[in-house]
Design a protein that fits this description.
By secondary structure, this protein is of the alpha+beta class.
């Protein structure tokens, strides 16, 4: 059974600009959360595997996994009854983070580490690269072609609008 988020974040209740990115970062924006999602995406589903491969303190990892389950990013599935043991699986919301993690991997290779070649490659038939594609026409999108618009009353791109 796919997990359903127990609650969603009201972006207008967060400090600063109301923004879906800020709400997303409330759920998955710390190191241990995204690394846990990475590990489950790589097929490491048991707590011990996630802890080993993230380097996260066990208490902090347990707390982050609970948040990710409550948010509907991961779901726990029991794989053993005696003693009861569960592992973690990505939900559709968790799989939707794949391009985010891919972009972070590529950014890290280009800007955060001094090693070459890239540390981790994602493959289809060829190496995958993060890119923008228009959902309507399927054309590649370049940053020069992107226009931004705030869709929250009382805000524009510069910040809060005076009444």
């Amino acid at each position: 059974m796919t997990a359903v988020p127990t609650s969603r974040i009201d972006p207008t209740a967060l400090p600063g600009r109301p923004c879906s990115a800020a709400a997303a970062l409330e759920l998955v924006g710390d190191r241990w959360s995204l690394l846990a999602v990475r590990e489950v995406m790589f097929g490491n589903r048991r707590f011990s595997e996630i802890a080993r491969n993230t380097g996260a303190p066990r208490d902090r990892l347990a707390a982050r996994l609970k948040v990710l389950v409550d948010a509907g990013v991961l779901e726990r599935r029991q794989y053993q009854q005696s003693p009861p043991r569960s592992d973690y699986h990505l939900t559709p919301a968790g799989w939707a983070l794949a391009p985010v993690l891919q972009a972070l991997l590529e950014w890290g290779d280009a800007w955060a580490v001094d090693s070459a070649p890239p540390i981790t490659l994602l493959h289809h038939d060829h190496v995958l690269h993060a890119s923008w594609t228009c959902a309507e026409c399927g054309e590649p999108v370049h940053r020069r072609d992107v226009h931004r618009k705030m869709n929250v009353p009382g805000w524009d791109l510069a910040g809060p609008v005076a009444d």
